[in-house]
Amino acid sequence: MLCTACRFELPKPGLFLEQPNWISHKLDGLIEYDRVHAYFLFAEGGKVQHLLHQVKYKGQQKLGEYLGTCIGRSFTRQEYDVIVPMPLHPSRRRERGYNQAACIAKGIARESGIPFLEDNLVRNKQVSSLIGLNRAERYATLEEAFEVLKPDELDGLRILLVDDTMTTGATFLAAGAKIKAASTGKLSFLALAALK
Fold it and tell me: Transmembrane ranges (predicted)?
């Protein structure tokens, strides 16, 4: 899927940075969480943006799963109990034909052996574009966009919530708040790429 040179040249912050760090600062202050991970650094116009564009808009589901398997090699079954992908609103999923976060999460699950749970966290509200909004404004817009359908399936588990990109962290926080309200377990976040 990726040539050897590209695999080595793609900018990576390291999945296991000491907490707190520049990624965790995007999430601090609104909900309690355990850890936050990012596989790539996102830069406007860079190779990582091109990869994300292929996964998100060009139907490259296999590329998303492949990148997930690359991430999954760094995790063991003992670290998390379940992997949950960031959901898309049903209309967006119909339009795109798939959920890019689910592709990445499937790859992580397959490689790590951590179970994958796709249909419990849902997005029941489609919002207008978040471009130009700060973290607090994005969070307020997304606050009621997510729902946990079966809280008992998540209660007490170590949950890894996976998405393709983290910009301000507001989407992770809004979805994470619903998970935290439904579960007494630990919540962590993983983005394929994070904007510094």
Answer: none
For 124-180, give the DSSP string: -------TT--HHHHHHHHTTSEEES-HHHHTT--EEEEEEEESSSHHHHHHHHHHH
The pLDDT of residue 2 is above 90: no
Cβ(148)–Cβ(181) below 8 Å:
yes
Nearest Cα residue to 101 out of 85, 112, 121: 85
What gap in Å lies between CA 125 and CA 44, rounded to an integer? 28
Cβ proximity of 178 and 25 under 8 Å:
no
Say what percent of the chain tops pLDDT 70: 98
For the four alpha carbons of 101, 50, 139 and 173, in that order, the dihedral sign comes to positive
Rg (the chain; Cα; Å): 16
Amino acid of residue 113: G
Pick the residue with more confidence: 86 or 125?
86
